[in-house]
């Protein structure tokens, strides 16, 4: 491997969140549904902040990229994480090449 190439790792890591039954009652979800929703919320937040690309965020929450993007409005996140300036550049490029 070339010294200028970044090293990638296939290691996986785990986050454990302790919570009481009160949390499940308040959100109206089963433990399994809560785990799915928590992973989606974390992935959405990291995507919105630009820390993960949509494909990476989708993988984090166990969804396909398109399914992840379509899930975002349901939980209050925009489908695109482009900042206004970036969006303007993308639109200008699409119009003028």
Biggest beta sheet attributes: none
Helical amount among residues, as a percent range? 40-55%
Order of helices and strands: HHHHH
**How does the helix and strand content classify structurally?**
mainly alpha
Distance between the termini: 36 Å
Instruction: Categorize the overall geometry.
Output: globular
Rounded Rg: 17 Å
Instruction: Give the strand content.
Output: under 5%
What's the gist of this structure?
The chain is an all-alpha fold. The protein has helices at 21-27, 31-48, 54-60, 65-71, 84-96.
Characterization of the model:
The protein has 97 residues and is mostly helical. It has one domain (21-96). Helix content is 54%, strand content 0%. It is built from 5 helices and no strands. It has helices at residues 21-27, 31-48, 54-60, 65-71, 84-96. Helix 2 packs antiparallel against helix 3 (54-60) and helix 3 crosses helix 4. The radius of gyration is 17 Å and the shape is globular. The termini are far apart.
Descriptors for this entry?
97 residues; mainly alpha; 5 helices
Describe the secondary structure blueprint for this structure.
Elements: H1 21-27, H2 31-48, H3 54-60, H4 65-71, H5 84-96
């Amino acid at each position: 491997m070339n010294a200028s190439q970044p090293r990638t790792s296939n290691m996986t890591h785990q986050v454990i969140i302790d919570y009481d039954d009160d949390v499940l009652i308040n959100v109206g979800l089963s433990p399994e549904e809560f785990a799915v929703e928590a992973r989606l919320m974390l992935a959405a937040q990291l995507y919105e902040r630009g820390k993960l690309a949509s494909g990476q965020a989708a993988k984090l929450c166990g969804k396909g990229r398109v399914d992840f993007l379509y899930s975002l409005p349901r939980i209050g996140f925009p489908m695109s994480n482009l900042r206004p300036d970036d969006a303007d550049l993308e639109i200008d490029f699409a119009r003028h090449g």
